[in-house]
Amino acid sequence: MADPACDPGSIPKVVSILSSLLERVSERNDGASSSPAISPSSSAMVTRSVASAFQGLTKPTISVRDYLERIFRFAGCSPSCYVVAYIYLDRYLQRHPTVTIDSLNVHRFLITSVLTAVKFVDDICYNNAYFAKVGGITLMEMNYLEVDFLFGVGFELNVTPVTFTSYCSILQNEMQYLETQHLPPPSRLNCLISEEESSNCHQKQLAV
């Protein structure tokens, strides 16, 4: 079997699809944040305070796609982890509606959500020190981000099969967008789908 670290063709579709979605969300929100400055008493200050742990000062030189592929190659996460990481990201945003994903925080959100997902989903995973090296951050920052993220999602880590399949369908729609390029880009991640709503959706399993 080919080594995933040396074989670009082994990257699962879910990694490429999720990176595409987050890149478009980040770019759109970057454009929105370039609007005139808002006074310190506005909701913008609330946004910065809530997401301050994840907010960087400069945009990383590595793209979202390359960063997520790097995580896949070196962290050895199962494809399911990326779907669960996506669900966790959405849960975080649902609990903090003033927070948006942009180029200054998307990388930290990614490494933290994947770390959280792999610990919950996979039987074997690398420790925080290893993930910190993969993510290009310090161990202290990795630990801090993990704790902040867990509190941010209210420690709601369980994912039912119905919810998992619903998010696979969302990512399937993103794959169709990549093929057609006719759908408008989102400004946020898709809203969290309740299990009651998702049971009424047309469920399609994502090929990974």
From TrEMBL:
Keywords: Cell cycle, Cell division, Cyclin. The keyword Cell division applies. Pfam families: Cyclin. Gene3D superfamilies: Cyclin-like. One of its GO terms (biological process) is cell division. One of its GO terms (molecular function) is protein kinase binding. InterPro entries: Cyclin-like_sf (IPR036915), Cyclin_P/U (IPR012389), Cyclin_PHO80-like (IPR013922). Belongs to the cyclin family. Cyclin U/P subfamily. This is Cyclin.
